[in-house]
Amino acid sequence: MPHGMCFLWEPEILWLHAVSDALTGIAYYGIPVVLVVFASKRRDLAFRYLFILTGLFVLACGSTHFMGVWVLWNPDYAVEGLVKAGTAVVSLLSLAAMWQAMPHALAMPSPAELRAANTELEAEVTRRRQAEEELAALNRNLEMRVDERTTELRKANDQLRQQVAREKLLVQEIHHRVKNNLQIMSSILRLQEDQADADLAPHLATAQRRILAMSKIHEHLHVSDDTYSIDIGDTIKDTAENIQSIYDEDGKIDMETDIQPCTIGLDCANPLVLIANEAITNAFVHAFPDETGGSIRVDLHQTADGVVEFSVADTGVGIDPDRPRRKTASIGSMMIDALARQIGASHEVASDHGTRLTVRFSPETTP
């Protein structure tokens, strides 16, 4: 029996139910479409599964209303019951899902809280932007000051280089003039030596050689890029060769040299060259009195820790403790002692198969 018979087929009641159920079903079928369109537009939507269940629930409800219209004229109550049963299942699932999601939904910030957080975030962004602008301004100011300071330093360095160049030229000129004056003094003494008596001539010759040795230092410094220190090896080698040319004209004495590069300050160079002059002269003058010949060895090197070691060794007669020294030799020994103390050097004399003088000092600890 169709459901319309319950209304006795009264048109007003029949069509009231039919139209109401039909319009409700149409609306219920349209709601899921709206939900699907909304969910597709919002990819960041929370609880997306609730929208799916709600859409199914509303769709099922719409189906029950359409079945209500159908059974007014067609008594398919079994089909209507199945539709209602499906609607019940979907409704219970939707209810369970909503209860499960409710604590999480309640924990979500409200629109007011979101607005407050957004306002605070905008304020923080503004503060950070201001800080970045201030930092950029500081960086620009720092770069400007660095550029100014760099320019000042560059100008100061240029001025310093010019001043150093002027001072270097002045010092080189001083060395040149000192060398010339010493050579003039040496020449004068040489002339005096030629005219002096036999007792005075050796003393003048000794003084002349000492002055010539000092002039060699200033000669090297005049042409050197470093006007405050010198490779003393070249000067000592020149001094030794000059002394040999004076005292060994017949070539009976063989002189060997092992002179390594050794750069020291001028305050040490002058005393060391004078020590070398005295020691080498003494070797040529006193080591071979019988003129039988022999050998002299001159060594100069600098150790890894900076200690300078200079030595002069000969194969001559050595030192006779019973024979009194000549006055000139005593003066030379006294000069070596004084010059060694001046540069803080230790020196020792050994006489075994000849004589050996060794001088050691550290330029870094020179008084």
From TrEMBL:
Catalytic activity from the UniProt record: ATP + protein L-histidine = ADP + protein N-phospho-L-histidine
Entry EC number(s): 2.7.13.3
Coiled coil: 114-159
PANTHER family, alphabetized: ETHYLENE RESPONSE SENSOR PROTEIN, TWO-COMPONENT SYSTEM SENSOR PROTEIN
GO MF annotations in UniProt: ATP binding; protein histidine kinase activity
Keywords: ATP-binding, Coiled coil, Kinase, Membrane, Nucleotide-binding, Phosphoprotein, Transferase, Transmembrane, Transmembrane helix
The protein, known as: histidine kinase
Top EC class of this enzyme: transferase
Histidine kinase/HSP90-like ATPase domain residues: 267-365
Sequence intervals crossing the membrane: 14-38, 50-73
Signal peptide residue numbers: none
